[in-house]
Write a structure and sequence with these properties.
Elements lengths: L5 H23 L71 H12 L4 H7 L5 H12 L20 E6 L2 E6 L1 H4 L3 H8 L3 H10 L1 H10 L7 H13 L9 E3 L6 E2 L2 H4 L3 H8 L2 H19 L1
Antiparallel strand pairs: 1-2, 2-3, 3-4
Helix pairs in contact: 2-3, 4-8, 4-9, 6-12, 9-12
Protein name: DUF3014 domain-containing protein
InterPro entries: DUF3014
Organism: Saccharobesus litoralis
Length: 292
């Protein structure tokens, strides 16, 4: 049986007192029946032994136990584990300029997975960085250095249609000629700007080295690239038929305003308005990142 708690101890003591008192009073209380007396032969009646009075019972409640203060246990100090420091990411390595063409091809192809094969097919496979730098340097002045183009020229020539209006003989550039540049325009259009700029920053040492090789010590290649982009953005978009003349073996624009444009601008016009808009829109995004 469970030991009574301090809250039940006092009622239990009082109940015990009541029981004991009742028994004592019953023993001392006179009986209602009168004993019979023998007249003929009285007997000596022994005197009853006086009852022993019970010791007084202490009815005062037991004192509440003194509260025992329990000391708080000493705090257990747990050593915190040392924070795990993530290793510094390794700087991506770039090859030497002489061995950079294949690396640059793969980097450009990885920018847009859907154009991976296309990038390999369109980009030149030797001295890609050097040719890009020389091409941009010429384009910054509006010149077109075909032999240094970082992309391969279309495998097919332009398609023209002979026209005559009265006594005027001329040619028009057929829309099928524009399709020669569709793949290149789509490749440029699909380049992600942020990833392309990250690649530009990564390849900056290679570009700077190639730029110094052609005599531009201490000059920032970014300024030259911005000038080339501005040249391309200044090319007007020609909608509708583009008239050509052939005063010699080479075709020319019949419109003097178009023929007087810089060679890099005339190349954009020959790409056709749709392709030209794609390329110029992407170049504008690159420019915004470069000047930021």
């Amino acid at each position: 049986m469970a030991e009574p708690t301090s809250s039940s101890l006092v009622p239990a003591i009082l109940a015990g007192i009541v029981v004991v008192s009742s028994i004592s009073l019953y023993a001392l209380w006179p009986s209602d029946e009168t004993p019979e007396v023998n007249q003929t032969k009285p007997e000596q009646v022994a005197m009853p032994t006086p009852a022993v009075e019970p010791e007084p019972i202490n009815t005062a409640p037991e004192p509440e136990p003194e509260p025992v203060e329990i000391a708080d246990p000493e705090p257990v100090i747990v050593d915190e584990p040392e924070p795990v420091v993530a290793p510094e990411p390794e700087e991506p390595s770039i090859p030497e300029l002489e061995q950079s063409s294949g690396w640059m091809q793969n980097q450009i192809a990885s920018l847009t997975s859907q154009n991976e094969v296309l990038a390999h097919d369109d980009l030149v496979n030797n001295d890609l960085v050097r040719k890009f730098v020389v091409f941009v340097d010429n384009a910054s002045r509006g010149d077109l250095a075909h032999q240094y183009s970082p992309v391969k020229a279309p495998s097919t020539g332009i398609v023209v249609k002979a026209m005559q209006t009265g006594n005027e003989h001329y040619f028009t550039l057929e829309e099928s000629s524009y399709s020669r540049y569709n793949d290149l325009a789509n490749l440029i259009d699909n380049l992600p700007v942020s990833a392309s700029m990250a690649l530009f920053d990564l390849a900056k040492p290679l570009l700077s080295e190639a730029y110094e090789e052609i005599g531009y010590n201490g000059k920032d290649f970014d300024d030259t690239l911005l000038a080339a982009i501005d040249q391309a953005l200044d090319a007007p978009v020609v909608e509708g038929d583009i008239r050509l003349i052939a005063p010699s073996a080479m075709y020319q624009f019949s419109d003097p305003a178009l023929e007087s444009l810089a060679p890099i601008q005339k190349l954009l016009i020959r790409m056709g308005p749709k392709n030209q808009k794609k390329v110029q829109a992407k170049l504008a995004q690159f420019k915004a990142e470069l000047v930021r």
